[in-house]
Amino acid sequence: MPSELSAIIESIVFTAESAISTDRICDLLNEFERDEVRAALAELAEYHEGRSGGFELAAVAGGWQFRTRPAFQSYVTRHIKAKSSKFSQSALETLAIVAYRQPITRAEIEHLRGVDCGGVLKSLLEKRLVRILGKKDIPGRPLIYGTSKEFLEIFGLKDLKSLPTLKEIQALDEVPQYERQEELPLGQEELVPVESDLPFE
Known about the structure:
The protein has helices at residues 4-15, 22-28, 34-51, 73-80, 89-101, 106-113, 118-126, 149-154, 166-173, 177-180, and strands at 55-60, 63-68, 104-105, 130-135, 143-147.
């Protein structure tokens, strides 16, 4: 069973509106040492992992959040009947460019995509998946964009280093070796004998 400190942290994470960082938890629980809080978080994560319940304590977006286990997603969506966010192809392309090339300007995104992306960027900003990081120190001082904490939460990423690499993405399109194996040329003489043809002592 979790310690009292783990139970306190559990209640804080449970009531948080979004992923809450270890630093924020330490600030709220200043009567405890940072090492105690870290140990209690590890204990809590291990407890929820070991109990194999319907939810887990996940490290996402630089913080901690209770999330339903991916294996039970289809059952949960039956209950809540929530409409999943649907993204257009252009929105996904733009979001991917921002995620992998940030910080990036609108002109740089449009150069990579080859089309105007003002409307798509505005939509991503409204959905809080992309945020303005500042202005680039070049003539015209264009805005620079990057992904937000909400982006990490929605895609279940601990941080930007958790994004799949280009090699991992390309591997998804490759046909596994066992599927590429050529059909073996079996002739009549190579047929597997039926049970009655097998020699028995």
